[in-house]
Amino acid sequence: MTITSRRVASPRVVCIDDLRSIARRRIPRAVFDYLDGGAEGEVTLRENCRVFEDVTFRPRQAVTVANSELGTRVLGFDLSLPFLLAPVGYSRLMHPGGEVAAARAAGNAGTAYILSTISGHKLENVKAASSGPVFYQLYLMGGRAAAEAVIERARQAGFAALVVTIDTPVSGIRERDYRNGMKELISGGWLEKSIHLPQVLSRPGWLASFLYDGGLPALPNVVVPGKGPLPLVDINAALAAAAVTWSDLRWIRELWRGPIVVKGVLTGDDARHAIDEGAAAISVSNHGGRQLDCVAAALRALPEVVSAVNGQAEIWMDGGIRRGADVVKALCLGARAVLCGRAYAYGMAAAGEAGVNRAIEILRTDLGRTLRLLGCPSTTALDRSYVNVPRSWEAG
Question: Rounded CA gap, 357 and 361, in Å?
Fold first, then answer.
């Protein structure tokens, strides 16, 4: 049974952008811009969404499709939907339910959830909340000993796969965070915080729930031997010391016998590296435009990676998904499934678990309608014949 809320019901909320508007009004600017923003000039952030306009549909008319089948198979799991909920760090700052609420919503919808290392809830509690498969996104934060410990915890808790993000040798510069004083609000003294406090005080509902939840938590899944959980304030320094190399993947493979997904691939060369290191799936991703700006939009990079992998691993894609039609276009270009991050995180920031449920419902309804309008019986039947792709993409 899913949680509903008038705040996010139709007609007030009919698309993901409506959830974004409510989220902007509910949470402090610093938290909203952390969720909403990207690196540097945000060129890639914008292009991730805009690029879907370059791919147009080729529908089959006068075809009766009573009910399109929306499911797919990912890493051996039959999912009811071809989209998974992506890892979103700091989720507990957006709403106290955070990762637990998102995992529960994903399971209720029949899809998978990926837990970020930068989680405010223990991984055991997140896994227990979901009736579906849960994967763990691994950063090597806190060093190898901390990573070994969390991998073992994930195994014992029943996580089904590791998702290794490879595009964060350092954290990208997100200029909105600097302007909003995100660092000062999290780790500064009272004098440093003072100039940024008005934005927090202007959101009394959020502030009350944040304080009732206990304030700023440490990271319960990054436990540094001899020091305990990593404080949330140490994120950027921890990421700078946690770059993943191809040799690290070999080490991870020795510790984890289940499927490994490599996330953050944008080129055919890196896709082939991932295959050589035993990746069961590859997520074509530019980290939502939050790392290196002016790289290719994820959808634009997808054909090159699909061609390079040539069926040797599953291909996922994340970046810019806001509508069911976006999901369909990615599947037509060769993705097995897509990851949705901001789309459901806006819902979480707007209304907690009810908002996540509403985001999933919107995407599901969009997806089914788009398939029927295309005259396509199922997501697994989608291919390039259902879309027009710019000629410049064909070489990819």
Answer: 6
Only one residue has tokens 């139709």, namely 10
Cβ neighbours of 66 (radius 10 Å): 6
What is 6-384's CATH superfamily? Aldolase class I (3.20.20.70)
Q: How far apart are CA 114 and CA 102, in angstroms?
A: 9
The token pair that represents 140 in the structure block:
């090597």
Q: How far is CA 53 from the centre of its chain?
A: 21
| Tokens 């198979």, residue located | 73
C-alpha span between 332 and 34 (Å, rounded): 31
Residue type, position 94, single letter: M
Question: Which helix H or strand E contains 24, and what residues bound it?
Answer: helix 16-26
- For 293-326, b/e burial (b = at least 16 CB within 10 A) is bebbbbbbbbbbbbebbeeebbbbbbbbbbbbbb
- Beta strands at 83-85 and 77-79: parallel, antiparallel or unpaired: unpaired
With pLDDT > 70 as the criterion, what percentage of the chain qualifies?
96
3-state secondary structure of 264: strand
Catalytic residue status for 95: no
- Tokens 């990207």 correspond to 38
Angle formed by the axes of helices 298-309 and 324-332, nearest 10°: 30
pLDDT digits (tens, 9 = 90+) for 6-30: 889 989 999 999 999 999 999 999 9
User: What would the two tokens of residue 46 be?
Assistant: 């914008």
Asked if 8 and 358 touch (Cβ cutoff 8 Å), the reply is: yes
Q: Tell me the mean pLDDT in the region 226-232.
A: 84
SS3 130: coil
Q: Are 280 and 260 in contact (CB under 8 A)?
A: yes
Token representation of residue 267: 């080129």
**Residue 236: pLDDT over 80:** no
Q: What is the pLDDT of residues 309-333, one digit of tens each?
A: 999 999 999 999 999 999 999 999 9
Q: What is the DSSP string of 204-247?
A: HHHHHHHHHTTSS--EEEEEETTTEEEPGGGHHHHHHT----HH
The region that residue 375 occupies, defined by phi over 0 for left and psi between -120 and 50 for alpha, beta otherwise, is left
95, 121, 273, 287: the catalytic one is: 287
